[in-house]
Specification:
The chain is mainly alpha-helical. Helix content is 74%, strand content 2%. It has a domain of 195 residues. It has a two-stranded antiparallel sheet. The chain has a two-stranded antiparallel sheet with strand order 3-4. β1 and β2 form a beta hairpin. α2 packs parallel to α4, α5 runs antiparallel to α6 and α14 crosses α20. The longest helix has 32 residues.
């Protein structure tokens, strides 16, 4: 019998109803209401986070097992809401200056957020797919929301076509898994695999297709082909959203699928994830070396960073899963700071998107340059900044399980990627100055950049609360 306890669903229900209310306001007030709706959406995210914190995270299951709220999903939802608030705050000024204010923008971000939150709480394959598509359909539209930009339209079409292909692969995998296990429920699948005399080839193939669909969402190689073009073509705040939040949700979903439903098949899926991790780190490190467009560089950087995070998945332990959660949070905070600088790169009324446009930034905006340098050092993994500890915990979890070769690939890739991060620092401080940017940072960008820099620098002073929360969430998943 399906339970009707809606308390665990309150944050998602609140955001959904708020988004519907925004549609009514937007239709009546037009696009002039965009800024107000965007800031109100940030407030709605804060209220959703408060609601989430008021609900017990002690493993509640509702809707006949389709929805699960535990410490794992609760922490991921909190991270998702933080990322959504940051991305919305970064977009307000951009939408106004670029004259692309659309009241649908905050509505789409909120609905994508609902999809992401449902993803990490999915308890069966049907809930997984419906939540994934709610997120994806919203993101397809956001990629092309700058209607007067051919690049934005091209990004949306590429993202939609390849996203539809990945959804087809995901559905094919789900159908195979259902056919061979007789259920779409994660708990039933796990029990079936536990009592089976070894896994059948059909389930293995189904899991491979399921993983392919999820790998697309985190832009892991070889399912990364959409990422550079979509990052470059989408409006800058949408790119910031893509870089920060959807990958957190996709990783949360992947961890729940692999570490819970398919834990008895860990020997099979670890081989696939091992390849995804190694390939992503190598391609992300070397492909970024040739990039001069800063959004394409960030795209390849994100591919490499997802490769590092996958090392923790390969480890297959609570420590590995906890390291993944910690790494994702650190990466989100670093990316937020980087995009608060990127969104200030504007000359003669146009966005300046080349790395060379940062030349001599230390002369015109020294505080921005030093903040960006701190973030680049952190992304490079230089101690004692937060980025170093993110990689350290990932590598440590893998070494404890004997994956030395994968860790060596990770370390070498990190050394290669340090080149293009430190190249940005060199350009900002040592190249001949380019013209100053049109305007300084808005208040919201200053706040986000300040919080980001304080986080990466001060992480070493008080790491335990974040590390302990990540490890506790991982253990809750593996109980």
């Amino acid at each position: 019998m399906i339970g009707f306890n809606i308390v665990p669903l309150l944050p998602e229900l609140f955001l959904t109803l708020t988004a519907m209310g925004f549609l009514i306001v937007g239709v009546s007030q037009g696009n002039r209401s965009t800024a107000v709706l965007t800031w109100t959406a940030c407030l709605a995210m804060v209220i959703a986070a408060i609601l989430l914190l008021q609900i017990s995270w002690e493993g509640q299951t509702i809707l006949n097992g389709m929805f699960v709220l535990d410490e794992f999903s609760g922490l991921f939802k909190l991270m998702i809401l933080i990322g959504l608030i940051i991305s919305l705050a970064l977009s307000v000024d951009y939408l106004k200056v670029e004259r692309m204010a659309r009241f649908e923008y905050p509505v789409l971000v909120m609905l994508a957020g609902v999809g992401m939150m449902l993803m990490v709480s999915a308890g069966n394959l049907l809930a997984l797919y419906m939540a994934l598509e709610l997120q994806s359909l919203s993101l397809y539209v956001l990629a092309g929301i700058h209607r007067n930009s051919p690049r934005s339209a091209e990004a949306a079409i590429k993202y939609f076509v390849l996203g539809a292909l990945s959804s087809g692969m995901l559905l094919f995998g789900i159908s195979l898994i259902y056919g061979f296990t007789g259920s779409i429920d994660f708990e039933v699948i796990r029990n079936t695999l536990d009592h089976a005399q070894g896994s059948t080839p059909g389930i293995t193939v189904g899991l491979a297709f399921l993983l392919a669909g999820l790998a697309f969402k985190i832009s892991a190689v070889p399912f990364h082909m959409w990422t550079p073009d979509v990052y470059q073509g989408a409006p800058a705040p949408v790119t910031a959203l893509f870089a920060m939040v959807p990958k957190i949700a996709a990783f949360g979903l992947m961890l729940r699928v692999l570490f819970y439903a398919f834990l008895p098949m860990s020997g099979e899926w670890m081989q696939i994830v091992y390849f995804l991790s190694a390939a992503s780190m190598i391609v992300g490190a070397f492909a970024a070396l040739a990039q001069d467009n800063i959004k394409r560089l960030i795209a390849y950087s994100s591919i490499g960073n997802m490769g590092y995070a996958l090392i923790g998945v390969v480890a297959g332990t609570p420590e590995g899963a906890g390291a993944v959660i910690l790494y994702l949070f650190i990466y989100m905070m670093m990316t937020a700071g980087v995009f608060s600088v990127i969104l200030c790169m504007r000359r003669q009324g146009l966005m300046a998107m080349q790395v060379s446009d940062l030349a001599g930034l230390s002369r015109h905006s020294p505080m921005m340059a030093y903040a960006m340098a701190a973030l680049m050092f952190s992304m490079s993994g230089i101690p004692p900044l937060a980025g170093f500890f993110g990689k350290f915990f990932i590598f440590l979890a893998a070494v404890e399980q004997g994956y030395i070769a994968l860790v060596i690939i990770g370390v070498l890739s990190s050394v290669v990627s340090a080149y293009y991060y430190l190249r940005i620092v060199k350009i900002m401080f040592f190249d001949e100055p380019a013209d100053p940017f049109d305007r300084g940072m808005t208040l919201e960008k200053r706040v986000i950049l300040f919080i980001s820099v304080i986080f990466v620098i001060g992480f070493i002073l008080k790491p335990n609360p974040i590390v302990d929360s990540a490890m506790a969430a991982a253990k809750a998943l593996l109980l």
